[in-house]
Design brief:
Distance between the termini: 51 Å
Strand content: under 5%
Number of helices: 3
Largest sheet: none
Low-confidence stretches: none
Order of helices and strands: HHH
Shape: flat
Length: 89
Amino acid sequence: MSMLDRARKTAANTDRTLSEKEANVLLDTYLDLAKLSPEITEHAQYPALMSAIEAASSDNRNVATLTSRIEALKEEGSELVNKVLDALR
């Protein structure tokens, strides 16, 4: 049996084991969201929680945008350095 076949067999076994565990967790977990929702949304801290979530989401978007721009700058900078080096040769 080749290493690739062994890897595929191991991956299939792992997927099967984890999917069974996931199914068991889902079956053992029951939340009546309709019953919980009024208790949650009418809680005094709910507006503060929603504010914190919105701020965190906004911060995450800002970080993602910054990361994307830095990656683009890195690629452009690399291309520029290569052009300069080619011109010097």
